[in-house]
Amino acid sequence: MASSPTDAAIALTRLGLGARPGEIERVAADPRGWATAQIRPQGAPQPSGQFADTAERVAQYVDYQSDAGQVRRDRRPPTSMASDTAQTASAADPQAVARREARQAARRDITQDTAQEFLARAQLGATTDDGFAERWALFWANAVTVSAVKFASGAFVGQYEREAIRPHVFGRFEDLVLAAEQHPAMLLYLDQARSVGPDSMAGARRNAGLNENLAREMMELHTVGADGGYTQGDVTELARALTGWSIPTARDQGQTANPSPNRPRRARAMANQIEPGPDGFVFRANVHEPGVRTVMGKTYPASGLAQGQAILRDLARHPATAKRLSRRLAAHFVADDPPPALVARLEDAWTRSGGDLAQVARALIDAPETWTPQPAKIKTPYDFVVSTHRALGTRPQRIQPLRQALLDMGQPPFAAPSPEGWPDAAADWAGPDALVKRLNWSRTAADAAQAADPNALAVAALGARLSERTRLAVARAESRPEALTLLFMSPEFQRR
Fold it and tell me: Which of 92, 134, 278, 466 is at 20 to 30 A from 292, Cα to Cα?
């Protein structure tokens, strides 16, 4: 298929994360081939750095949680001592103080490590040659989102994206969503690790109950959607099937801080009824709700862990899932109100391939609607910051200014406001206050930039998308920082 002069710029800004110096020229010979070549079985590129994997982070988190129990015990007054006297004694106890400080340090270490993961992800976005694969991965991380608004899930959000999302983004959707739902980040974010079957062995022993958060979001947000034909009864049945999905604890690893030798033998045996799965996942048979389940008209036998997995795979293969996520893809890449023909092409590719995301990605690249010259999407703050670094040929160097910039513009790192993920429409990002914040950051970036020629940079960043009005504004600016600010705030740079 012949390429127009604007196709390379469209490929790099709409399918990718923005053009770096000289990149439009390199891609111009075959923009579609540039994107298609990034569809690889191994998935999307990984950020660089030495970070804990999921198994290592689970061990750190288990230690942190075990320490929490000891800190609570330090604060508990002996029965023979008045409460205020006990608290004073605890505060003065060197060992208790050391335990509290060690736990605070462990939390800081985990938080700082997660922050460095985000910096590494932004640096990858600013420098990668595989802009389409990176945008594709970011889409799926947001579609099946986990947020650091909770410390528990935030502790695992970097591992979640690296291990549950990126390796699967060009594989089958059912494999991606299963990896996502079984990852500790998701199990902690949506409180699944606390869910106990009321009629399970554990539920019969203590006052514990069902938590439907994961089941509800699994159906409403991750697969078939709110209009997919399920009922509240289906949510409850799925929640029952998912009981037992959990993460390891110190007790599982024989690391209980204060083991009780007097604990009944039967209770100790029941606590060990676990089935390990992927790193960081365990299935606890003793909290699983027994019985046959029926979800969306299909009956699933009582098969423990396999029961929930089978339901999830069927939800991933459901026609409503193909329809909903095809529309969401089209809305993310092309327009808030996507062309129906594009949605139909993606849905057809999804359905024919059985949810093969590589085939869906190829359908997106091949669709003529993807290459319309008029940009219809507003960049999110993260897109804006990354694309600015790409235009300048730089990358973020420190997490604090990056975090502050994104916080000011309303998209703090790894912290989507809800399980729906970050919004993706112009109305959410183009309000007057939001544009003022973008202007302020543009000035800061322009003041710090070392770019020699703003006019050449404008051509390199936008190619044939550069309008005459913006070209003249940049050329007539009174200073280099002013010229760069005008470029970064121009309509064609803010849109993709």
Answer: 278
> What does the buried/exposed string (b/e) look like for 462-477 if buried means 16 or more CB atoms within 10 Å of the residue's CB?
bbebbeeebbebbeeb
Using one digit for the tens of pLDDT, what is the confidence trace for 33-83? 999 999 999 999 999 999 999 999 999 999 998 866 666 666 666 555 555
Q: What is the DSSP string of 352-381?
A: HHTSBHHHHHHHHHH-GGGG-SS---BPPH
pLDDT tens-digit readout, 158-193 = 999 999 999 999 999 999 999 999 999 999 999 999
What distance in Å separates the CA atoms of residue 423 and residue 429, rounded to the nearest whole number? Answer: 8
| Rounded Cα distance, 9 and 255, in Å | 56
The tally of domains found in the chain comes to: 2
Domain containing residue 174: 54-189
Q: Residue holding tokens 């002013």?
A: 482
Instruction: Check residue 231 and give its pLDDT.
Output: 98
Answer whether residue 392 is part of any domain. yes
Residue 154 falls within a domain, yes or no? yes
pLDDT in tens, 366-392: 999 999 999 999 999 999 999 999 999
Residues paired with residue 299 on neighbouring β-strands, in sequence order: 294
Q: Which residues contact 59 (CB under 8 A, 6 or more apart)?
A: none
State how beta strands 245-246 and 274-276 pair: unpaired
